[in-house]
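Sample intake sheet
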Amino acid sequence: MKKYLIGGLFAIAAAFSVHAGDSAVLVDNGFSSDGNYYIFGQYGRIDKKFQSWAEIFTVDVRKNDYVDNEFYRVKPSAATSKKTGKEVYDSLFEKASVTTEKYKCSPCKPDQILYIREEEKKSGTDEIVFKDFTSSVSDDQAVYHVQLVPDVTGSGVDVRSSFYINVEKQDSNGRVLASQKVGTPSIIRKGVKAYKIERIVCDSEGRNLVFIVEKTIEDKTGINIRFMIEACELNDDFSTNLATE
């Protein structure tokens, strides 16, 4: 994203833990009623000190950027060491209620969940394929092809990286009907050694997409798992009907 986000979401109303160690639990607050904004949160406890933390972001989907002054955070500290991450998040969510209520967000419904990474060993660069989610099921239904393209240099705590996501819509014969690059590869992230797309969700109209990306971060404390998102409004080519042969 244009501004570096640490975040992501569940495509289910509940939150869940994804990895052992210093990893995040993410919460899906969903798209705004018009589909133009997405609100998500994450929380957890840092290793060794066991101090809890929480964050809530509002994202402008079409700008692929977070909204100024609509970011809420509780940093890990001695004051949070006796609280669970969920307790810290719930308290933070109350403070953010003015923002969350303004957008009238709702968690993603099952038909808005386009992809979930179920195989832990699946590579971050493996191609993701799913059927067109805006057309009826038919033999000539279009298919989406999604692939994360990373650029990683260095190693250990000195690693630096960036990425973008290539999205294509193809007909049943493999002809490319539409394509779009999502993300900002010019942003170099220090300490991030790998990326994987965890989930892909769309708004109720199927026009705006959110990609939930797992980041593997290496620093002096060890390996940490965090999430970020990339978001986009699909270009007009994606709404073009399949040509009749």
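Comment: DSSP finds two helices and 16 strands in the chain. Confidence is low (pLDDT under 50) at residues 2-21.
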